Task: structure prediction
Amino acid sequence: MSKYSAYRTPGSAFSALIEKRTVWTAGILLAFCAALMIVSTGIGSEYISPLTVVKAIFGSADPTSQVIVEQLRLPRIVIAVLVGASLASSGAVLQGIVRNPLASPDITGVTEGAALGAVLFIFLFQGTISIHWMPLASIAGAFAIAVLLYVLAWKNGVSPLRLVLIGIGISAAVKSISYMFIISGPMQLANQSLTFMTGTIYGSSWDNDVVTLLPWVAVLLPLTWLQARQVNIQALGDDVASSAGARVQKQRLVLLTLSIALAGSAVAIGGAISFIGLMAPHIARKLVGPSFGGLLPVSALIGAIILLVADLVARTAFLPQDVPAGVFTAAIGAPFFMYLLYRNRNQS
Amino acid sequence: MFKIMGLISFSLALAAAVIGSITLGVTNIPLSDVWQSFIHFNGSNEHLIIRTARVPRALIATSAGASLAVAGAVMQAITRNPIASPSTLGVNAGAAFFIILASSLLGLSGLDALTWVALAGAAVSGGIVFFMGSIGRDGMTPVKITLAGASMAAFFASLTQGVMLTDGRAFDQILAWLVGSVAGRSLNQLSYALPYLAAGMLIAMLLPRHLNVLGIGDDVATGLGQRTAYVKTFAAVSVILLAGGSVAVAGPIAFVGIVVPHIARHIAGPDHRWLLPYCAVMGALLLVSADLGSRYIAMPQEVPVGVMTAVIGVPFFVHIARKGRRAQ
Result:
C-alpha cells in the first residue's frame, strides 16, 4: 500500500488519508466477513449458536456440534470464501487491464472455458486421476479460451469492446460443447457436470476441496497483489502507460495469466459461478476508489461475502432443496449488470 | 433473374436435404419405403421410424431453421446490429426458461399452453433487452444491446439450470432440448407451434419495404413518412412469434439467426424483399443439413443440432464482431 502512495501523490497528506480509509474499509469488511462465516456456519437444518461455532472451531464444543461444524459446514464456508475471493480478484484484474467496466471472466467466456476443462476432466479421468488435479484441467481450459479470445480479438492491438463481444460468442459455443459431453455421458456424471456448470459449493470437504484450492489461492492472490502497480499503470491506457516506461504488452500478459489462473482454479472447485467477478470489483471501487493496491483486497473480501450470502440463501431458502449458489449470484448479478449498463448509458 | 435462380436452387437443395434427412441415419431407408409408409403403412420398423422419427424431425428442422433465420434478419434490421439474433439477444433463453419454469413449478404439460408460455418468455426477455439496449443519449448501440442480451441470456440460463437441478426429475431429455434438438419430437408438437410460426412468418414477409426504409436510420425513415414505432412493433411481434414458437418445438438453437442472414445478404444483397425469402430457405437448409450431419459425427450416438449450429456459428460471429468494430 505504501507503493500506491509513493506512486500517485508522493508524500502528500491527501494520499495518506485515502490509505487510512482503505485500511479501515478493509478491516471492517474483514470483521464482517469473519462474523458472517461464523453465523452462516451455525445456520442450517440444525441451528448452532455462534458461540458454539467458535468453540467448535477451537475444538471444545459438544461432540454433535463439533462434527456438524467441523466436518459438514465449515469446509463449505471456507470454500465459499476462497472461491468468492478468487473470482472477484480475477474480475478486478481483468477490468483493470481491459479498461472496460463490463468485462469479467464469465462475460468473456474464460469461466466457461474453465468449466469445459473441468467437464472434460470429469469425463476422461473420472476415478483414474486424483481430483486434486482438476484445477490444472480447468486452468488449462481457461487459458485455451483466453488465448483463442486474444488471438481472435487481435487486430492492430486488442480493443476492449471487441474482446468482450467476441468473448460472448466464444462463451456460447464453449458452453454448448460442454453440454454435448454432458448429454452424451452417463447419467450420474451428467448431473454432477450440470451442477458444476451452474456453480455450487455443495458438499465441499477438507480433503478434496479445501486442500485442492487453498494452495492456488495462497500463491496467486499475493502474487496478484504484488502486481498492483502494473495494473494501475495499465489503467491509464496503452499510450500513457508506455510513455511512462511500462512494458505494456508483457505486463498485460502476466496480469492476464494471473487473472485466468485465479478464475480457473476457482471454477475447478466452485463451478461456473457467474457475475461475482463482475460485481465485486464495482462495489469495491465505490468503497475505496480505483487504485489497485486497495481495490484488490477489498474486492476479494466483497467477493467472499457475496458468495457466502448467496450460498446461505441457496441452502436455506428452499429447504430441503439445496439450490446451486450460482443461481443466486446470477439472479443478483444480471440486474446489477443491467444497472451498470444504465449507469454507463451515455458513454460509448 | 439471378436472384430468382438462386432462390430456386436453394429450394431444390433444401428439398434434397429434407429427403436426405428422412432416408439417411443409423438405419438407411430407401426412398420408395418413405412413400409406402404413408400410403401402405405396414407397421414395420422402417415405416415406424419414418413416420414417428424421421419425418417429424425433418419438418421441425425446416420450420425452426426458417423461423430463426428470418427472426434474426428482422432483428438485425430493427436494431441495426449485425450480431443481433434470437440467441445472442437472450430471446431464446427467456422462452426456454419460461417453459422449464411452467412445466416444473406449475406442472403444465399441455403443448398448446407451453407454446404460449414460450411466446410470453420470448416477449419478456426480448422486451427487457430491447429497452435496456436503447437507453442513453446515443440510443440503441450494437455494443449496448449485445451486452444487455448476453447478460439476460446468462441470467435465464442460470435460472433454468437451477430449476432443473432442484426439480430432480430425469433431465437428460430436457437437457438435450435445452441445447436445441430436433430429435425425438412428434408432429403433434410441431402442429401446436405451426400457427404461430406461420403468423410470424406472414408478418415478417409483409414488412420488407418498411425494413428497407428503417435501415437508412430512424430519422430518415420518419422524414419519409414512416411510422417507425408501428413498424418496430410489428417486427417485434413477428420476432417473438418466430423465436418463441421455434423454441417451443426445438429448444433454443443458437446462431442460426446470426449466420444465415449474413450469408443471405452476401448472395441476395441488402434488399429485404429478397433477403427474407432467402433467409427462410437457407435457414431451413442449414438446420436440416446440420441435423443430418449431427447423426454422423458420433454415430450411433447423436450430437444435438444446437451444438452443431453453435460450432458452425462462432467463426461467423467472430468475423462479424471484428468487421463491425472497424465500421464504427
